[in-house]
Amino acid sequence: MSKVRAFTILEMLINLTIMSIIMGLIYFAYASFVKQVINYQVSIDEQNELTTSYVQLRTDFFNAERIVKSYKGFKVIPYNNKEIEYKITDKYLIRRQVHMLDTLSINKLTISSDFNIITKEDLITKMIVETTLFDEPIEFVIAKDYAPNLKLKL
């Protein structure tokens, strides 16, 4: 009589246990990798949004003929007279231009301005924006140097 060679139930259970442990480790490694990739993407998006807002704010200041302080914000008046309105809330700096609306999360905003006696406008000369990036506080400074004809009127 020939003897049939096969695995016993005990050998199959041990094999199944070992394979389950290996598959669990592979799943854990994959899940950790995916989580790191998602966190990295979120941090890159956060950095890109802050950089875009900073560049836009600097461009608005640079292209402005004057920046007039208002009750809850300020207006950027460029040479082409297409006003850009900024509104300041407790947590956000909101930029509105025609049909576009952009926001920047802020912790604190400090504005320096000079009052122009002739035009009766409060012109912003410097702004310090404090915000967070990667859960770390950062600040950036934006200044406006006005044309001589407006400086003489200050």
UniProtKB/TrEMBL annotation:
Record keywords, A-Z: Membrane, Transmembrane, Transmembrane helix
Membrane-crossing residue ranges in chain numbering: 12-33
Domain of life: Bacteria
Keyword Transmembrane in annotation: yes
Record protein name field: Prepilin-type N-terminal cleavage/methylation domain-containing protein
Source organism per UniProt: Aquimarina amphilecti
Classification of source organism: Bacteria, Pseudomonadati, Bacteroidota, Flavobacteriia, Flavobacteriales
